[in-house]
Amino acid sequence: MIAISLTEPPGAPIAVTDFDYFRKLNDGATSAALAAGLALVTLPSSRAPEMFVTTQLDGAIIVDPIPDDPSVIRLRARGVPLVTAGRGNDDGGETWVDNDHDAATRAVLDHLRSRGAKRIALLTVPPVHSYAVDMRRTYENWCSELRAPIIVEEAVAATTEIAGVLAARRLFARADPPDAIYAGLDGQALGVLLAAEAAEISVPGDLMIACCTDSQSSAHASPPLTALNLHPEELGHRAVQLLVAQIEGRPTESVERLVPWKLIERDSTNRRKPRS
User: What pTM does this model have?
Assistant: First the structure.
């Protein structure tokens, strides 16, 4: 039996069933586990660290670990084979599978710029997960290279639509508000869309919106949101492949750690004529 759990960021409880990304990653991991003759259990984020001590497991997958992650620490102490979906920020030597968030972030920013955006804001979570660290570093480097303004807003409650609404209001209240917002999570992007509608800001005419994670809600929003498909099902599948190789004592070099991503362009960035 193997287990999978999503680490909660500090001060931001997560209901994993609220995330298309995690549901799809879990589906991919489940199908791979069943194909390998293994049972896979999903542990609740809030109780995972203690359950990793009391549950007899052959291996575990931690999604989006944080620095000094309590689940990772306890699994290491028990010597349980471990794979992380998303790199850890410390050098614990864990095997991981992830996307190239540097290249993906640049692709989104280049896309927004090609559609005429001049003041692109990054709406992100605190830099505890590796993807948030990568996105912020790449965004700041990209802005510096093009001498574009750096506009970063952190969502307080991180994962919710209301966090996106509140962050968007702060961005709209700036002396020079952004003409595009790249949000790290689809819930945040949906919150930005709600805030723009309430403020009578046209999307994409006055404001373009893109997000790092795709979902059914993003695809069916009005307008539909441009997003990155990070192929979470494949992430889950490869995480199990790596874990099974560890359990069986086989080398893992043959399994690719980086899963391809795809930029899905939708109407939220379909500004046909670049601004002068």
Answer: 0.92
